[in-house]
Amino acid sequence: MDLSEINWDFNVAGSWPLQVKAAVIFIVCCFVVGGGVYYFTIDQLAALDVLRQKEVELITAFEKKQRKAVNLPDYHAQLQQIEASLSDMMRQMPTKAEVANLLFEISQTASSSGLESKLFQPEATVDKEFYLELPTSIEMEGKYEELGLFVSGIAAMSRIVTVHDINLAVLPVAEKSKITRMSMKATIKTYTDASESENADQAKVK
């Protein structure tokens, strides 16, 4: 088939050879399909990728929530244990009225342990949102065993009392004395319920 003999006028396309008609139709179809893909399908494919990514994120979020839902009874049990422990700790906190007696009890523990008190100074109250921290700076002198007895006595108190920032130093040995004495500087902290102060302030306002 000699292509130069073909009349390429589209008005007489019906007279073209079958092979030429098939080739032209194929080329036109390719252009139509390509244009459709370019103008419509590419955007749809991009949207599909976004939806697939969203699907993955939703599946991941669902799996996390499902694991939490499966462990929900355990979380409830842990929460009840925490609430019970917190309730016990709150009961061990002294009320504001009991703080003075507690400080006196701490001082008496030092005396009964055989320590010499050089400093016993309550510091400013620290607001910890749910409770109030009541620090007291102390300085005690005595034998190592007496210091240990004092700390043990503090730990055995019915109210929560903690010892912080302990600084031990050996004191110079006096002449004619073979007893080694030590100095202990520390901060003793006790705690009280912050809601008690709030309730008291509200009562004053009323």
Quaternary status: single chain
The main β sheet shows up as: 5 strands, antiparallel
Report the C-alpha radius of gyration, rounded: 43 Å
Strand content: 15-25%
How many alpha or pi helices? 5
SSE run: HHHEEEHEEH
| Unreliable runs | 198-206
**What is the share of helical residues?**
55-70%
Question: Could you please say which CATH topology of the largest domain applies here?
Answer: Alpha-Beta Plaits
Shape: rod-shaped
- Specify the CATH architecture of the largest domain: 2-Layer Sandwich
Q: From the helix content, strand content and strand pairing, which structural class follows?
A: alpha+beta
Terminal Cα span: 111 Å
Give the tally of structural domains. Answer: 2
| CATH homology group of the largest domain | Ribosomal protein S6/Translation elongation factor EF1B
- Determine and state the CATH class of the largest domain: Alpha Beta
Q: Mean pLDDT, nearest integer?
A: 79
